Fold:
Amino acid sequence: MKSRTWQSRLPERKADPAFEAMNASIGVDIRLIRHEIAASKAHAAVLADAGIYTPAEHDSVNRALDSLAEEASSGSMDASGFEDVHSLVEHRLTELCGGAGAKIQTGRSRNEQTATAQRLYMKESASAAAGAIQSLMNAMIEKASENMDAIMPGYTHCRPAQPIRFSFYLAAHVAGLSRDMGRVQDALRRLDECPAGSGAVAGAPFGLDREKAARLLGFAMPSLNALDSVSDRDMQIEIVSCAALLMVRLSRIAEDLILWSSPAFGFVSLGDTYCTSSSLMPQKKNPDALELIRGKAARVAGDLTALLMLCKGLPTGYQKDLQEDKERLFDAVDTVLSCLAVFEGVVREMTVNAGAMKSAIGPECMATDEADMLVQKGMPFRQAYSQVASAIAAGEYGNGTAAVSPEDSVERRRSAGGTAKSRVAAMLEAARTSSPIM
Ligand code: ARG
Structure:
């Protein structure tokens, strides 16, 4: 271990490599280096205002932080042997500008630093996720608009229920994705409070100007309570929860498309880009991208469970358990962003086989319409239902044809939210023009 900021407290300490490896978070939190440097710049500005730094010292700290930022972005930063990203920055700053570097930790604690850097990271990630959700929605809206007239069976209990437009199916998931987007935007509003200047647990001394630090870091305001700021991980949980819910949705769409692209259905064909084949069976074209997305939903649900369990029953204040938060947060964000990008590609490359969809609509799909026709002639619905049900039970229904066509069936459902063309077109139009949330 290169440098421990707390070394002087335990001068005789002998290191156990197994514990040193467990205690170090640098392998994970090095991803926050940009944010840590930005937060250090803001802290230095606030220290200068408080008279802790002379203008010359402030200047040299700023220059050193800029050169660290360059090192980090060029990939030449050697982070090995440090305990965490916060110790790394303090150590390197002290190397670069001596006494001024040694003043950087005045009034601040790694407890607030990890909270601040993670908030900056989450703000960026949530914005990126909102953009990726919007792109996937756009791809689905386009695919739906190009295939307005493809009609397929809508299923309940995995059995054909009533005809629906494929565009209506896609619009259903666009509606869900826009709620996912809303949740991310909502989280972004709550993320807009800056923990910098919270100290270890009790707040900052020296009259440090937390409003200024928050402003410099692009937050709307400083966080309300220092103890809450170092103690709570509800925002990490909220972001990972948004990710888990979104992944559950993607897993369901993936499952539908896996089934519908199978030879037994043939409703859609997947682009080769997102499929692989078998090393043994030459006939196979496997939907790996969709299967992996379906599988990765489990992983993100695991990330969420890990964070919830991490915080359950944890005493108020910073506890080292919380160091475990970042790996789960990063994993969930990485996974959801890659799945959104791949899913968009799958949707864009997918072709729709309207003929196969139509062939899957047997006369039984219009049984409800048959009963509805009797209702229109004045028969009570239960009687009409029984008449059609009895014909089906006796094997006398349909005989290959139905009085109502699939096209008529979908067009009869013109009430708000229905599968009639005008309604689907309106849904798609509303989704297309709804103000981009970001
Ligand atoms: N590496 C730590 C983490 O990730 C930073 C905070 C450590 N604070 C402390 N007092 N040891 O949570």
User: Anything to note?
Assistant: The pocket of arginine is lined by residues 25, 29, 84, 86, 110-111, 114, 318, 320, 322-323 (CB under 6 Å). The first strand starts at residue 151 and ends at 156. Residues 7-106 form a domain with the Fumarase C; Chain B, domain 1 fold (CATH 1.10.275.10). Residues 58 and 94 are 13 Å apart (CA to CA).
